[in-house]
Specification:
Length: about 300
């Protein structure tokens, strides 16, 4: 109970910080109606002494708040490294909590400089934001109670499916499985998991990396479908047209990949959750795999 109280208080504090960071200052222009706010240049970020990075606060092991009120997770490790590399200290990162549906909007409005909230790269999202190089692989999974395990997508036709708004899973079921109509959608991951745990739905679908972690931490639930659709990638996103910041992130991710930073981050944040049964290479992108994505998706600098 104490851990839940600490986590709740931490979330409130983080969201208050996010609200404050969204207020207009001389160097934080607000977007006018129907227009995109001006993105901050690298010089402006350095002059301000802080970089605003959007993250999840409720998605273990990628972005969450621990019982001491501190942000933790795989995405958080990368965010801290950005702070260290660009500004000399991880303490210069201002973490801005966001939900899945606001990841692009927070960039457009200038509330964040970078979105690192487990953001899957899609063609639709590329129309709204610019993605840097990917640092992670992902597909869609489905978790359900072991006593009524969902192992095939066709089983969902007669069941209630839980989704989170603004996710690739929501997009997948809208486009690829429109026959599944009994769906409840939630704004936050914690709300969705609570609904599954309470029996308000029969299954929950989101990134397989997420549901595998949650099932390992919650006895009585299992991932019956480990992969739906094509394998995707997860990458940092910047405001559309912010080439300078995108180029910086591309260069940093290549350097970090050469130093095996992402494997080390996985060992620190994901290994304790997934255990040794999950091969890190199914998730981590670095080395030759990263170069392949660099070439395939034409991320090379012009």
């Amino acid at each position: 109970m104490k851990k839940k109280i600490f986590a709740l208080l931490a979330l409130v504090a983080l969201f208050l910080t996010a609200c404050q960071s969204g207020q207009q200052t001389d160097k934080e222009p607000a977007a006018t109606a129907g227009k995109q706010a001006a993105a901050r240049s690298l010089a402006e970020i350095k002059d301000s002494g802080k970089i605003r990075i959007g993250v999840f606060a409720d998605k273990m092991p990628f972005g969450y708040v621990d019982d001491k009120g501190q942000p933790q997770g795989y995405d958080i490790e990368l965010a801290k490294k950005i702070g260290e590399d660009l500004l000399g200290s991880a303490d210069k990162v201002e973490f801005v909590p966001m939900d899945a549906a606001s990841r692009a909007e927070f960039l457009k409005s200038g509330k964040v400089d970078i979105t690192l909230a487990n953001f899957t790269v899609t063609d639709e999202r590329r129309e709204q934001v610019d993605f840097a190089l990917p640092y992670m692989k992902v597909a869609i999974g489905v978790v359900s109670p072991e006593k009524a395990l969902v192992t095939d997508i066709n089983q969902l036709k007669d069941k209630k499916l839980i989704l989170v708004k603004g996710t690739t899973a929501e997009n997948y079921f809208q486009k690829e499985a429109p026959e599944i109509k009994n769906i409840d959608k939630y704004d936050a991951y914690q709300e969705a998991y609570d609904a599954l745990r309470d029996g308000r739905g029969d299954a929950f679908s989101t990134d397989n990396t997420e549901v595998l972690a949650w099932a390992n931490e919650n006895p009585g639930f299992k991932v019956g479908i480990e992969s739906l659709g094509q394998e995707d990638t997860i990458a940092p996103a910047v405001q559309k047209g912010n080439q300078e910041l995108k180029d910086y992130l591309d260069d940093l991710i290549v350097r970090l990949g050469q130093d095996h930073f992402f494997t080390k981050a996985y060992d620190k944040t994901c290994l304790p959750v997934y255990g040794k049964d999950v091969d890190p290479k199914q998730i981590v992108l670095e080395g030759d795999d990263l170069k392949a994505y660099y070439d395939a998706f034409n991320y090379a600098k012009k």
